[in-house]
Task: structure prediction
Amino acid sequence: MIRNISIDDFLGLEEKPVLADVRSPGEFQHAHIPGAVNLPLFTDEERARVGTTYKQEGREPAILLGFELTGSKWAGFIRTALELAPDKKIAVHCWRGGDAKRRDGLGARPLRI
Result:
């Protein structure tokens, strides 16, 4: 089951799932929720490319570039997530980027893989 929860609700959970922070390594290094592990969708360079594309060309071209950059990585993401959370319960967090900045609060979402 996938559901959105606030960061306060996540931090209040008695049994917390693994928290995978999918931001770039540089963003994770700058600041992250204590106990989170970095499972980045983009390298720092890829994140910069997507951001530049968003600013110069718009949302849709940036989304398409993001899919192009991550498409071949999905099997590796899933393998790593299963290693981190063999019970298949994991929370995914991303709090940066063009669309993420419009969300209220921190997007921590427990989900089953």
Notes: Helices lie at 7-12, 25-30, 44-57, 59-70, 74-84. Residues 44-57 form the longest helix (14 residues). The first strand starts at residue 18 and ends at 21.
